[in-house]
Amino acid sequence: MMMKQNSQWTLLLATSMVSFMSTIDASIVNIAVPKLSHDLHAPMNEAEWVVSVYLVLICVLLIFFGKLSDQIGRIKIFQIGTLIFVAGSLGCGLSTTLPLMLAARIVQAVGASMTMATNFGIITQIFPRSRHGVALGVNSSFVQVGNIMGPGLGGLILAVLSWHFIFFINVPIGLIAFAFGYKIFPKDLPTHQKVQIDFIGYLVYALAVVGFFVAIYWGQEIGFVKPEIILLFLSTAILIAMFIFRENHTQNPLLNLHIFKNAGFSIGIISAMLVYAVGYFNNMIMPYYLQETLQYSSAIAGLILMSIPLLNIFSAPIGGMIGDHIGAEKISLIALVIFLIPELIFMFITPSWGIVWLIAGLMLFGLANGTFQNNPMIMGNAGKQFQGIAGSIAALARNLGMAIGLSLSTSLLYLGISQKAGQHITTYPNHNPAWFISGMHFSYWFALGMIVVALVLLIGLVRHQKRLSQD
Known about the structure:
mainly alpha, Growth Hormone, Chain: A, 3 domains, single chain, 471 residues
């Protein structure tokens, strides 16, 4: 599908705006939970479901809408999803009770999953292959900045307005994006094929995702070695095995597993999940280090943490352009090498190092995060017929990575603190900040390990591709 270049970039802006909104809404609400709890007359633990239900439902629905978009058209699903997301945002802002808020949040998640499942496929559809890297890089900037700056933007809004405007702000932006798309998006080509969804396979998949998240959230409260949590993880593994068996033995699978036979696609998915998980270590640990250990105000801490998205904004499209010339795999390999430097800094840094070292580490992390071209790698290794489902799998990897990073970072942090203290601790040790620093270093050893795993996988992939090109 060829379009004029200015129309391509207008549509990229429209899809990226929606990507930014749907991604930032996974984290921006966190900072408003205390106010939500008070105003909606709900206990804090119940109010936290406003955050959880959004993330869980998106993961449940992504594969479904990816499959559906391959059959009836990605643009149609994206545009309908944008309107549903806007309606859900309006409902959230108008909610006066927790049940109404949760119902609106469910609507919002349905719309977000429709746009997340299709945006990558639309971009690869409207841009020529020679510009996939830079186009997906621009979109990645919006997505990654949305992931990182949610709490900061939420705090800014709450400083001058009520929590309702965290949701209301999506309405005009979403309607503008829809209007752009309605006017300029090309029409989906008619497929003349009957919609076929493997609902049995989908039910098994949905149960596996819900089981995984229940184990994650419950495990954080009671501990991951409890029998009930181990049983939940075991049940999730069994459901995943059942899903794989089902998809390999049904005529019209929900997820054609042949897509994973492409090494570039599979390694792209795994490495993306690992990188997003590592990113959440900064989200969870660095605010404590800056505000509690170094005693910076929340405003100064927020400005320091903005080092990551600021570098990310510039490095993602530049990395995409370089990737278009040398390959997404090679530029991603370079990014993973860069990742090693900030992780090593975070593993050893102490207050005596000074703030310059920390800012340098955060900036290098933002540079590497933007340069890492997982989306072009994933979409470029998926066949044309798989672009919709490939985009939804990429979004699923991102959300699962965030959930894993959230759980791992906090669990490892408090495990490291407890080991240093010789007692079980699940809060910041105000009387002994050195225990926190020890826990932080302990956590970042694991973060470094995840980057090394991704690096080894990508080195193997690049060598494999080099051998294939020489044959």
